[in-house]
Design goal:
Helix content: under 10%
Structural class: mainly beta
Low-confidence stretches: none
Strand order of the largest sheet: 2-1-7-8-9-6-3
Order of helices and strands: EEEEEEHEEE
Shape: elongated
Strand content: over 45%
Radius of gyration: 18 Å
Length: about 120
């Protein structure tokens, strides 16, 4: 199964690097006036970060940068598991740098290190 963002097909090697860093429970710790600690746990229903990393051609990077330039676009991200997730950019949404040697006149096929930062908002 391909990884897609809306209709853009992302590289097959994209890795969800922070998949297991998130917990479905948020926690607030507040010190009280008497020095004790007030601890509150609450369920989190949305806001999970999704950071995808991999290598992509410059042409795809430019398409992603154009999508990132839109104001608060609601997007559909489908990962290798086949499940669709509603996501928004977590700014900066697209980070890219040349992979290996840099060229003054890169082509659309030149490889770039790519990082995509999303917030999963499904509830």
């Amino acid at each position: 199964m391909n990884t897609t963002l809306n209709t853009l097909v992302l590289p097959d090697d994209m890795v969800w690097k922070d998949e297991l860093d998130w917990a479905p429970v948020g926690q607030t710790m507040t010190p009280t006036l008497d020095g004790s600690l007030l601890l509150e746990d609450n369920p989190l229903f949305s806001g999970r970060p999704i950071t995808l990393v991999g290598i992509a051609g410059r042409g795809l990077v430019l398409q992603l940068k154009a999508l990132e330039a839109q104001l608060s676009p609601r997007m559909t991200l489908t990962l290798h598991d086949g499940l669709s997730r509603t996501v928004y950019w977590r700014r900066p949404g697209v980070k890219a740098s040349p992979y290996g040697e840099e060229f003054a006149d890169p082509t659309d096929a030149d490889p770039y290190n790519l990082e995509l930062n999303f917030t999963w908002s499904d509830e």
